[in-house]
Write a structure and sequence with these properties.
Length: 129
């Protein structure tokens, strides 16, 4: 007989793949060979700060899919190059996301979405925060 408490416990390294796919599918596609993010028309309707979250969520998806991108975290330059945002727009948004515990930063000053923050990211993407 299964322990009733089993439903309470999760593996902190796993992500809700279905949720991540639902959040990304409207805005981007990911090239399996080059790991490039291909924006869809809806991408252009996103606020700049949400583009950062979509990009970092896409990196999380690539790692979960076991694509060869190295690591989930991305530097300012990687974010800038892959979103088309400039540093003047991007840096204040990154700082705000760090302060709000939506993003974390590595020792190398790279940014990523911790697994526990995916629900917060969802609310930001769909406009509830």
């Amino acid at each position: 007989m299964a322990d009733p408490l089993d439903e309470l416990f999760v593996d902190g390294n796993e992500i809700d793949k279905k949720l991540v796919a639902e959040l990304l599918t409207r805005y981007i596609k990911i090239d399996k060979t080059t790991c490039e993010i291909r924006p869809l028309p809806e991408w252009n309707n996103l606020k700049e700060n949400i583009k950062i979250l979509i990009y970092l969520l896409a990196r999380k998806a690539m790692v979960a899919y076991k694509l060869n991108i190295g690591e989930e975290a991305a530097s300012n330059t990687e974010i800038e190059d892959n979103t088309g945002l400039n540093k003047n727009t991007m840096n204040p948004a990154l700082r705000r996301f760090i302060d709000d515990k939506v993003l974390k930063q590595t020792k190398e000053q790279k940014y990523f979405i911790p697994n526990h923050a995916v629900e917060i990211v969802k609310n930001k993407i769909i406009g509830k925060q």
